[in-house]
Amino acid sequence: MCQGSVYIHGYLDPELKQDGRLLYKCAKGYVVDTRSNRRHILTSCGEDGYLNTTHLPTCIPPTHCVGPINAGGRAITGDDKKPSTFREKEFVNWRPVIPTRDAEVNKPIEILCESGQRDWASCSYDGRYRYPDSICQERNIISNGSQETDSIPCSSQVIYLDEATEQINIPGPQDFGWIITPGFPHMVTQISEIERNVMMTSPLGTNIAITVEYYRSNNEKKDEIQLIEELYGQEQVKNLAATKTVFTKTNKATIRISQGAVVRISFLVLS
Question: How many domains would you assign to the chain?
Fold first, then answer.
């Protein structure tokens, strides 16, 4: 039985297991081992009733999404309950192009669909693959005469910025999506020369992980992507860099994209 505090910096609240041990999971999507992306530890209090944290690993950011581009769940077809990956299936609908496995975090993944159209998934900052609904719909499978989809992390929130101002209301924790400006991914000579402001709101008590997965510019202006928050009655401005993730302090923030910038930005709500 633990007598002292059971909270550990960098970990979420512990879960008590049946054998009396405590299960801790890393907060903020971090891991304890970047080679496997293991996210939890099991430990227990000592004879004195206190946790000895000196031997426990520190949670750190993952560097890759480990393994092939996969579903992150189970593809259930009939009695087949074995975990499957896109690589193990026939590529009848689509296949990853660049890369095909062990993708670096904070970068887009190019997908080639059966129709010949190209789409983009992501290796998110937390080392997990995530996909837009357009790709998930390509993954529809037939099971017992009905149509089902694999349990993979998909989102319909793919916002193409056509206007100067966009308001995004993100429903809840773990919801995610992308913000894309004209010009991605193709090199084009004509890019809209307007400044864009994306106002984001998530539920109270949450914050938002924001990653610039892709960036290029047609001008030499500095500070072209900024995160703006109001904290303690004052406006706080932070410059965003490509392939880097920042975390908002509150559930409201504005992303300002200067004219001439071409970006793909991913967002994920954290509780």
Answer: 3
